[in-house]
Design goal:
CATH topology of the largest domain: Methylamine Dehydrogenase, Chain H
Helix content: under 10%
Distance between the termini: 48 Å
Number of strands: 34
Structural class: mainly beta
Largest sheet: 6 strands, antiparallel
Length: 444
């Protein structure tokens, strides 16, 4: 790649993308503390990273006295789908990932054989995937649309990137460190992310840690996305954060520290072609946090950063514009309709925990602390729903208004889902039913 000035790099645009949405509806899916909702007494969610599927259902890990647990569902349908007793033995569960078929996967390490576990829509959990032989830790598994899983397999002497099709051809090892594969020039593999094509993207280090690269593997040919300046003297990238976002269009979202020390986020599907999503000191972004970005198939990238006013926020950007899905200090209605605020006013503790996630519609799930005007009240898993700028009553996204939209509204209405809120005043009630009915009869 020829040397490009940072200004030229910022101007590079390689993709067309959907318009960055706005976010006016936020819904608490579960919360802890004295605003306990949808979780058992004593539950905590601290720094967990939640996952969201296309229908707006979420999966996340929570701790309770003497147990570690996995939760999945929506506002009125969520439930604990796995509980592991930790009162005697130590178990480590990863953050879960979920797909649109409502399969949830997570790594479970502890006494006995470590493995990737899974639960499906009925809530039954079971061991799902293992291998290669000798794997001691299954790092941060992700699940795609057809139930294949991707993860970093750790052995006593090194690590490998693996995809696994439990219902098909089983294990594929895509890359391995030189400590376990003679002839490999990889010294360290970081956590990969898999898409629906069974491809994985991630960061690796070559013979020394400063020689960093981002690759897409599992395709033919394999594709190099970016290199650090240590490997390519023309590269503007000094180093990369450890995990990336990856979508079905082959786009990789990554956070980098540029030569000179400024941090930025880029989206790329080929070496040398980078769309700048955000950069410190540009627009409303002051400091980009060390939590991995995520990207959906429309090229919308969600990430955590401080805004120009010094507030922590969850941003969504597409290279042309940025918006905030959530920001520290924003008001939100609690589970008992009380007035709460995202973040803490009494000290400098983080307002958010873990990384956000984004689904196909642009809805964003995040983990945040909640406060009233005086005290910390608890923490919550919250979904920021992307505003529908096309046709509000086309709830199924089919492009027209029909009975499918009517029955979808009824399902949202019965579940008290915020997508059934069609009238001002907050809450879901008969006013929303009649407001929807009027809009439904008018059509789009």
């Amino acid at each position: 790649m020829t040397r490009a000035t940072l200004a030229a790099l910022a101007a590079t645009t390689a993709f067309a993308s959907a318009q960055t949405p706005t976010y006016s509806t936020h819904q608490i899916m579960a919360s802890t503390g004295d605003i306990l909702f949808n979780l058992p007494a004593g539950a905590s969610i601290s720094s967990v990273t939640p996952s969201i599927n296309a229908s707006g259902k979420v999966a996340f890990k929570f701790l309770a006295p003497n147990s570690t647990n996995i939760w999945f569902g929506g506002l009125a349908t969520g439930q604990t789908i796995q509980t592991v007793d930790t009162s005697v033995d130590f178990y480590l569960l990863s953050d879960p990932d979920c797909n649109d078929d409502e399969r949830v996967v997570w790594a479970q390490d502890g006494p006995g054989a470590p493995a990737v576990w899974s639960a499906v829509a009925d809530g039954s959990a079971a061991m799902y995937a293992t291998g290669p032989l000798g794997t001691a830790i299954y790092g941060s598994p992700s699940v795609n649309a057809v139930g294949q899983v991707g993860y970093r397999a750790s052995f006593s002497t090194g690590r490998a990137w693996v995809t696994n099709d439990p219902a098909g051809d089983g294990v594929r090892v895509l890359a391995a460190e030189q400590s376990i594969q003679p002839g490999s020039n990889i010294s360290y593999l970081y956590t990969p992310t898999m898409n629906d094509l069974r491809e994985v993207a991630g960061k690796m280090s070559r013979s020394v840690f400063a020689q960093e690269e981002i690759w897409i593997l599992g395709r033919d040919p394999q594709l190099l996305i970016a290199q650090s300046n240590e490997l390519d003297s023309d590269s503007p990238f000094d180093k990369f954060d450890n995990a990336v976002g990856f979508n079905n269009a082959g786009q990789v979202a990554f956070i980098t520290t540029l030569v000179g020390g400024v941090r930025a986020i880029y989206l790329s599907s080929d070496y040398g072609q980078y769309t700048e999503i955000a950069r410190e000191g540009v627009s409303d972004v002051s400091d980009i946090e060390f939590f991995h970005p995520v990207v959906n198939d429309d090229g919308l990238v969600a990430f955590r950063a401080f805004d120009g006013a010094g507030r922590r926020a969850v941003f969504v950007g597409d290279g042309a514009s940025l918006t905030k899905a959530a920001v520290e200090g924003a008001a939100i209605r609690g589970p008992n309709d009380e007035q709460l605020f995202i973040g803490r006013f009494i000290d400098t503790s983080p307002a958010f925990g873990g990384s956000p996630d984004i689904n196909a519609h642009g809805d964003v799930v995040f983990n945040a602390q909640l406060h009233d005007t005086v005290d910390l009240r608890g923490a919550a898993i919250i979904v920021a729903f992307a505003d529908d700028t096309d046709c509000a009553v086309d709830l199924t996204g089919e492009g027209d208004v029909n009975t499918n939209d009517f029955f979808q509204f009824l399902a949202y209405y019965q579940a008290q889902d915020p997508r059934a809120d069609f009238s001002p005043g907050g809450g879901i009630n008969t006013n929303d039913f009649f407001a929807f009915l009027g809009a439904y009869q008018a059509g789009c």
